[in-house]
Write a structure and sequence with these properties.
This protein has helices spanning 3-23, 48-65, 79-84, 99-116, 129-138, 169-177, 198-201, 227-237, 253-260, 278-286, 297-305, 318-321, 357-360, 364-375, and strands at 39-43, 69-75, 90-94, 120-123, 142-147, 159-162, 210-213, 244-246, 269-271, 290-294, 309-313, 328-332. By secondary structure, it is an alpha/beta fold. The protein folds into two domains: 3-177, Glycogen Phosphorylase B (Rossmann fold), CATH 3.40.50; 198-375, 3-Layer(aba) Sandwich (Rossmann fold). The strands form two sheets. The chain has a six-stranded parallel β-sheet, sandwiched between helices. Helix 2 runs parallel beside helix 6 (169-177). The chain starts with a helix and ends with a helix.
């Protein structure tokens, strides 16, 4: 079984039970007066893309509250993206695997945060029971998080906001931040650090190459456009004149190779899977002619830098995570059962058809036509 699926099952089962038990020992505090220059903690474990998308809300908090400390508790894999945003005074991270390391890192950070006496804690995860338990253990003066009336995790937050599935994610995050803000601030994206010299190191000429992301976060592999579709697409556009860079993590490099290995004219293709840091990845995407990607973190990197994108949405809805404006084409077939990703259960996907029609119906011929229009 996928180890990420195991984690989701633990959170949905045991996590829900533990939230119910801890609720019996938790009395919700009255809203505390927010002191001048408070110590603020942000919790956001999952999703490099989500961190980029909640950055405008965090910047609004920083500009409005002028915090003495603005910390984030996240996964070690997100450390670099958090640092590159220039928002946080401290990045506290946990290694996810092996699990005993995660438990050690987590409780070390919880103890450290308890000693700091956090004034305001913002839990930017939607409905994971795990972060609600962490919120309880840290014991901040005021906790802010998402609310659903039938979930016991909601009991640990003094200030709450609903998750409005008809809003874009940047608006959902900003609404949570507004629970302590006395004025509306701008929602401009926060640009991470980049280095425009990076593409050249991989033989990529600025503005003349295509970046393709055939991967998605392991927590929801159902979002991947089929491998054979990517192969057909790359073969169709391979002669447009520029190089093609496949991106991904070290764990995804082999998947990229499986795609490249099936392509006849692969001399102009470079596999960057596992070769780039976050800053290097952002630099490659920023300077690309076009980004073709599944619904995943690299899409949001492209959007915030204004790189034209072609993206695929199936189990998830582009209403929440799609580009809001700009030169972007979103493929979403809007089949009767899509979207089916359950935000309330750690982005659980249960395909009732046994096959992802929502993704399979985005056929290569449709995509090739659109991509060629971008390359003119």
């Amino acid at each position: 079984m996928n180890k990420y699926l195991i984690l989701k099952n633990i959170d949905n089962g045991f996590g829900s039970f533990l939230c119910a038990v801890l609720s019996a020992f938790h009395s919700r505090k009255k809203k505390a007066e927010i002191r001048k220059n408070p110590k603020v903690l942000i919790i956001k474990f999952w999703g490099m893309g989500s961190i980029l998308l909640f950055a405008p809300a965090v910047k609004a908090l920083k500009d409005s509250l002028a915090p003495e400390e603005l910390m984030i508790l996240t996964l070690e894999s997100n450390r670099e993206v958090c640092r590159s945003l220039g928002l946080f005074t401290d990045v506290l991270s946990c290694r996810l695997f092996p699990l005993h390391r995660f438990v050690y890192d987590l409780f070390r950070n919880i103890l450290r945060l308890r000693m700091k006496k956090v004034d305001i804690l913002f839990d930017f995860e939607f409905f994971t029971n795990f972060t609600a338990i962490v919120t309880f253990l840290i014991g901040a003066r005021t906790n802010v998080g998402f609310y659903a009336h039938d979930l016991t995790r909601s009991n640990f937050y003094e200030l709450t906001a609903p998750f409005n599935q008809y809003w874009h994610i940047t608006d959902i995050y900003m609404n949570l931040a507004n629970k302590v803000l006395d004025r509306q601030l701008d929602k401009n994206y926060v640009l991470p650090d980049t280095d425009d010299a990076v593409p050249g190191r991989y033989g990529l000429e600025k503005g003349k190459y295509i970046v393709i992301n055939p991967n998605s976060e392991p927590i929801s592999l159902e979002r991947r456009w089929p491998r054979e579709y990517f192969i057909e697409l790359i073969e169709a556009i391979g002669g447009y004149g520029g190089r093609i860079a496949l991106i991904g993590s070290a764990a995804e490099a082999e998947y990229n190779e499986q795609i490249i290995g099936k392509i006849a004219g692969k001399g102009n293709i470079v596999n960057l899977g596992g070769k780039t840091s976050f800053v290097e990845l952002a630099s490659v995407i920023k300077n690309a002619k076009l980004l073709i990607t599944n619904d995943s973190g690299p899409l949001h990197v492209g959007v915030i830098f204004g790189t034209p994108t072609v993206s695929f949405f199936g189990p998830e809805t582009p209403v929440i995570y799609g580009p809001k404006s700009g030169r972007h084409h979103v493929f979403f077939e809007n089949v009767e059962c899509s979207p089916c990703m359950n935000i309330r259960k750690a982005k659980e996907v249960k395909c009732k058809k046994g096959k992802a029609d929502c993704i399979l119906k985005i056929t290569p011929d449709k995509v090739i036509k659109v991509v060629r229009e971008f390359l003119v």
